[in-house]
């Protein structure tokens, strides 16, 4: 047993979790903050139906996008939902040189009665604000963030698919658009939300993925930007991700940069370990791990169900021993895009092990998606009606 097995439920009481629990005005009260300029070249219903019949992730976009601009002195303004289209940006825009950018990922789900809902939008609003602080970008008001989702989804409601596991993926992002090569926090910042209809991540049930554990690269370092959702973290994970692919693996898993021994997360998903005794463990938030909304919700649901959930330091060595001895029965990754993904194989320098179990992984997947699609009770009022 490691030294850090004290049960804690820190993730139920972080600033993000507390912000997510604050009440929000109903969507009707927020609607209209981003007034609509309709797209004169919107897709015809035949074109849209064709796009919705052949869903991939992140390649098709809806007719509109939400936008706001911040300027030093004047603050946020220019709110609107405008036709989706190419941006016009100076080649001197700071984001192109220094990567001053933050983003979010959140989905809109169509329920059986046709209504459209999203999951804990305040969580993402608070996280975008926290990421913005770390990247020296201005914070958008959290209700304005939610209003941007409401107005965009209402404009493009016909783009929310209704098939099993399908959703409209929403991508809010903000970046330094000021044309200035000096290194300073930008004086002009643009915020957008674009939307992309997304198919079910898995078409034949939950398919286990294989993981390459890199000891060569790290995702984040102490005091760095690991806890912020910023494009740079993804840029730095692309090379290790392609080395993982060279090893025949689907995804890369990173270890901490100090001891180089402890599990942190995948490039874009948190990880959880299920023990034979039913305990679920996940790496604690150390400042280098992105605090996932899915992670937080899963900890809550498992705790509600009477399971012990432990946030602790999980060493790679301990995990491999646990898998070998049978103490560890399942490992899964979680995030908004894929929800829950079983990890079926862990490979790295000197090891290559399989993991067979997936019972708890399936349970948690079905429970969470059941809430998101309105098929299960939502005791924590996580769902927010957009349209
Ligand atoms: C977005 C993200 C996650 C998952 O967060 P969710 O809020 O659950 O979607 C996990 N890790 C990283 C690095 C991320 O960028």
Description:
- By secondary structure, this protein is α+β, with helices and mostly antiparallel strands.
- It has two domains: 10-17 and 204-377, Alpha-Beta Barrel (D-amino Acid Aminotransferase, Chain A, domain 2); 31-198, D-amino Acid Aminotransferase, Chain A, domain 1, CATH 3.30.470.10.
- Helices cover 27% and strands 27% of the residues.
- It is built from ten helices and 17 strands.
- It has helices spanning 15-21, 27-30, 45-53, 94-98, 121-134, 142-155, 231-246, 293-304, 316-325, 359-372; strands at residues 64-71, 75-83, 101-103, 106-110, 116-119, 167-176, 188-198, 209-214, 251-255, 263-266, 270-275, 280-283, 309-312, 328-335, 339-348, 351-354, 383-385.
- Strands 8, 9, 10, 11, 12, 13, 14, 15 and 16 form a nine-stranded mixed beta sheet that branches. Strands 1, 2, 3, 4, 5, 6, 7 and 17 form an eight-stranded antiparallel beta sheet that branches.
- The radius of gyration is 21 Å and the shape is globular.
- The N and C termini lie far apart (49 Å).
- Residues 1-8 have low confidence and may be disordered.
- It binds pyridoxal-5'-phosphate.
- Pyridoxal-5'-phosphate (PLP) binds at residues 105, 229, 265, 268-270, 290, 292-295, 335-336.
């Amino acid at each position: 047993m490691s030294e850090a097995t004290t049960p804690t439920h820190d993730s139920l009481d972080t600033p993000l979790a507390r912000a997510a629990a604050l009440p929000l005005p109903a969507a009707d009260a927020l609607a209209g903050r981003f007034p609509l300029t309709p797209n004169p070249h919107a897709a015809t219903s035949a074109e849209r139906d064709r796009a919705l019949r052949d869903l991939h992730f992140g390649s098709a976009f809806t007719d509109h996008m939400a936008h706001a601009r911040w300027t030093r002195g004047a603050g946020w303004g220019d709110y609107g939902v405008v036709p989706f289209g190419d941006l016009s940006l100076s080649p001197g825009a700071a984001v192109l040189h220094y990567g001053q950018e933050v983003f979010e990922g959140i989905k809109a789900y169509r329920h059986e009665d046709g209504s459209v809902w999203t999951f804990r939008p305040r969580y993402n609003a608070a996280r975008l604000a926290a990421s913005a602080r770390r990247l020296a970008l201005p914070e958008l008001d959290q209700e304005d963030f939610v209003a941007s989702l409401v107005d965009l989804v209402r404009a493009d409601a016909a783009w929310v698919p209704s098939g099993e596991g399908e959703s409209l993926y929403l991508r809010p992002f903000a970046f330094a658009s000021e044309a200035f090569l000096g290194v300073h926090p930008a004086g002009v910042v643009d915020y957008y939300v674009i939307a992309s209809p997304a198919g079910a991540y898995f078409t034949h049930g939950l398919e286990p993925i294989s993981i390459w554990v890199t000891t060569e690269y790290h995702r984040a370092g102490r005091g760095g930007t690991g806890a912020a959702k910023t494009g740079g973290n993804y840029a730095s994970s692309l090379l290790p991700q392609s080395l993982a692919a060279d090893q025949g693996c689907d995804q890369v898993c990173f270890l901490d940069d100090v001891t180089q021994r402890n599990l942190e997360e995948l490039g874009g998903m948190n990880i959880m370990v299920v023990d034979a005794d039913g305990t679920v463990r996940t790496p604690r938030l150390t400042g280098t791990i992105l605090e996932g909304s899915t992670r937080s919700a899963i900890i809550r649901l498992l705790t509600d169900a009477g399971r012990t959930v432990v946030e602790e330091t999980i060493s790679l060595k301990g995990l491999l021993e646990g898998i070998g001895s049978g103490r560890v029965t399942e490992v899964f990754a979680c995030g908004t895009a894929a929800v829950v993904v079983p990890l079926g194989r862990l490979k790295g320098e000197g090891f290559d092990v399989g993991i067979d179990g997936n019972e708890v992984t399936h349970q948690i997947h079905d429970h969470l998606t059941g809430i998101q699609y309105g098929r299960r009770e939502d005791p924590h009022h996580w769902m927010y009606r957009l349209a």
